[in-house]
């Protein structure tokens, strides 16, 4: 365990004692020295009674810093807010960075949101109301309006004065955006450049006029990609006329990248949400069952398909032995191709040309892997069962299913993407089932056709 | 297509023309205005001849900015460096941020690295040599030594002087670390705090003494987690005595988070590297085949297991119909449990207590999902085949396999983690195969035992 961790745990002990003894001074002297993330981790572990004490020990502003570091799980926001005095809650929300406050309010129902906004002071309410308009997962929904903007005809000195004044409230002061009279983005300058420039330099002389920006309706994944590729610490968000509406900072993007990756991962594994796992078995079962039941019925369909070949099976029972092998290989290659396609799509390679090239490439990959695995299987089955025809049957089935499975694994997510369905949903289950069905049709189809050579 | 993208494509056209006409002024006037990321994207698309022209048109320093934005794929670093004049290459490496230069050198063989370091100026070579010591994927391997440190007994004014002087070379100036006489980390101060403080304030009065740091040997994933949770823009890296060795900046962490997530994802899908997909079918096939061949032999093992029950199968061919269903369900639940366990482990929840709680929880989840799916299957099979005993047999097999599969899906990654093997490797393939085998043993075991009721 790291020293930092040890210290935090020691402190948590004294914080708990202070809460039980209702000793406000002790509590505040330790708590306010902690990083808000540690404060939040401590806070969410408390029982309702201790949380009440915390609300009385902290100011709305201090509580806001804690709340900014709480992630919503199992309706935590709802629970905590309803415990607070409504005025305290509204003041706290007003003190949070507007983008974080919006994240919280998005989890509540409309009536509640409206009542908090009414109690709040007008300026904060206005800021939040503007952000609430934007659709989830867009640039607008993760941006903040607490940025610093300056004009091109200012000097470095006067820009630094503005920075000093605005620093306590702005989410970042490290990038400053330059706007013209119409509030359109005209340039950007980093604090680094401001600091190394002479105080009487004009901003217009040193600003970078090539500003990368994102549209307010842009998907947050696209924003994350831009920020990652270009190593920005902040990106301006503009409307369709190029007016500056807000900025997105790198810390929000770190969360987005992590979420989106988790999301693709969860879907590949057919779990609805892999991250929130601090629950009992019932709630875990509830989350996984919908997938399992769907898969069960898909599996039944596969079973009924095999049922059609019962006559073939009765004559040549050995055929059954290779069902899991063939279906399994089809599932595996399909998932590989799917994973590649989903990642490509979420990395933004979605031009038609790139995609059709991908399909051709996957077809080639399927043929090559299918041919090699097919030969290996033929040899192994021949050696094991001493039946060259059976070996060839299984081998050719592997070749055919691997080719078809690889193509379908790549093709289905593309179709889904075109139909504006998140391709990650196609995931393990569907690709695997489709490939099960295809592989079984090929295998038993050929077996039935060439039955006379098998008996 | 966005405006920015359109502009970049227009520029790429004129850059190509300038290269063909060997027009250095035209080339430089457009190229040097571009963001290094766009420069790199343009550069890697060029043919060798045009690349030669670029090496002659740019200074080593300008080329360094391009190179910092190239990701190594298919030995790109190797190719480009070997095309360059060795002195030019060494000068370029010296001009890169040391951590990026190390990333490049790590891809070359030792002799080459040594020869570049010999040509390079001593200071740069020393810096790089120090970083080359650190193991890949540790904090040491991603940190940079180009940071700014100050002392506690300085004033804000003198600290700002240092910042102005060091800004052009430091990787970040937004966090400044305070060290004591022994070069141990004593505090941290953000540029934001420096700017809003009076020039004659002592650093010791305003610095934050609670510094979060990471050990040089720490796993990069752990570093990423800390940075994400605490929203830092930079973290100091210290040795075991607490001496400041370097810093890690948020842009490197964004890459780490993205890589690690991709990595877990790739392993779940049994592809070695999902991201690098701009290759032909042969190289894609080469990457996937090792997995497929392993899976093929695992599948063969499953097949031979079913082979043992050939006698049972010959008597009751209908049994074969449910093989894919049972094996598929076992695979699906196993993968779900695996995904949850892998994510938990990579999120750092690795204390014994948490983990044993997870196993208990998974066992419960397996029982609940197994019971529900089992009942559904029994009913469906009874309705479909009109055979209650067959329905019950399949249903009970589902109950048993789901329970076992869920536990093994969670348990195996834990064991692997304890054995210091990356649990993500367990992935789809192994969990699925183990669960295939278990499910078939349970299913045919029961079928053979109760054979008399089936015929």
Automatic annotation (TrEMBL), chains A, B:
UniProt keyword list: CBS domain, Cell membrane, Magnesium, Membrane, Metal-binding, Transmembrane, Transmembrane helix, Transport
Membrane topology category: Multi-pass membrane protein
Residue spans crossing the bilayer: 289-306, 318-342, 363-384, 390-416, 437-454
InterPro entries: CBS_dom, CBS_dom_sf, Mg_transptr_MgtE_intracell_dom, MgtE_N_sf, MgtE_transporter, SLC41_membr_dom, SLC41_membr_dom_sf
Compartments, as annotated in UniProt: Cell membrane; Membrane
Superkingdom, taxonomy of origin: Bacteria
SMART domains assigned: CBS (SM00116), MgtE_N (SM00924)
Domain CBS: 143-206, 207-265
PROSITE patterns: CBS
Main location: membrane
Stated role: Acts as a magnesium transporter.
Subunit structure: Homodimer.
Similarity-based family: Belongs to the SLC41A transporter family.
Record-given protein name: Magnesium transporter MgtE
């Amino acid at each position: 365990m790291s020293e930092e961790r040890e210290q935090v745990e020691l402190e948590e002990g004294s914080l708990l004692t202070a809460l039980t003894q209702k000793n406000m001074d002790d509590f505040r002297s330790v708590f306010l020295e902690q990083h808000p993330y540690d404060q939040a981790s401590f806070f969410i572990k408390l029982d309702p009674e201790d949380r009440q004490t915390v609300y009385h020990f902290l100011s709305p502003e201090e509580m806001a810093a804690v709340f900014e570091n709480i992630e919503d799980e199992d309706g935590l926001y709802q629970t905590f807010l309803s415990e607070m005095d409504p005025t305290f809650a509204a003041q706290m929300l007003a003190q949070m960075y507007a983008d974080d406050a919006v994240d919280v309010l998005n989890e509540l129902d409309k009536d509640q949101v409206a009542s908090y906004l009414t109690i709040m002071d007008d300026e904060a309410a206005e800021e939040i109301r503007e952000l609430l308009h934007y659709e989830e997962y867009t640039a607008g929904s993760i941006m903040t309006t607490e940025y610093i903007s300056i004009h091109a005809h200012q000097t470095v000195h006067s820009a630094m004065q503005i920075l000093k004044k605005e620093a306590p409230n702005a989410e970042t002061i490290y990038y400053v955006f330059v706007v013209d009279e119409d509030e359109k983005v005209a340039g950007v300058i980093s604090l680094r450049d401001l600091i190394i420039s002479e105080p009487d330099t004009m901003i217009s002389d040193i600003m970078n006029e090539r500003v990368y920006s994102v549209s307010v309706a842009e998907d947050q994944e696209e924003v994350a990609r831009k920020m990652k590729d270009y190593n920005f610490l902040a990106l301006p968000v503009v409307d369709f006329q190029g007016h500056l509406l807000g900025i997105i900072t790198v810390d929000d993007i770190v969360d987005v990248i992590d979420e989106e990756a988790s999301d693709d991962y969860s879907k590949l594994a057919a779990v609805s949400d892999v991250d929130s796992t601090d629950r009992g078995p019932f709630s875990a079962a509830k989350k996984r069952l919908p997938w399992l039941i769907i898969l069960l019925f898909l599996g039944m369909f596969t079973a009924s398909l095999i049922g059609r070949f019962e006559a073939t099976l009765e004559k040549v029972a050995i055929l059954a032995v290779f069902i899991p092998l063939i279906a399994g290989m089809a599932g595996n290659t399909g998932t590989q191709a799917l994973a590649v396609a989903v990642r490509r799509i979420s990395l933004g390679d979605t031009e038609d040309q790139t995609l059709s090239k991908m399909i051709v490439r996957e077809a080639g990959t399927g043929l090559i892997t299918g041919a090699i695995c097919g030969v290996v299987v033929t040899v192994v089955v021949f050696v094991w069962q001493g039946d060259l025809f059976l070996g060839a049957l299984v081998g050719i089935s592997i070749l055919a299913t691997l080719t078809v499975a690889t193509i379908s694994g790549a093709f289905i997510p593309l179709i889904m993407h075109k139909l504006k369905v998140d391709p990650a949903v196609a995931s393990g289950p569907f690709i695997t089932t489709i490939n099960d069905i295809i592989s079984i049709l090929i295998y038993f189809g050929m077996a039935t056709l060439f039955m006379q050579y098998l008996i």
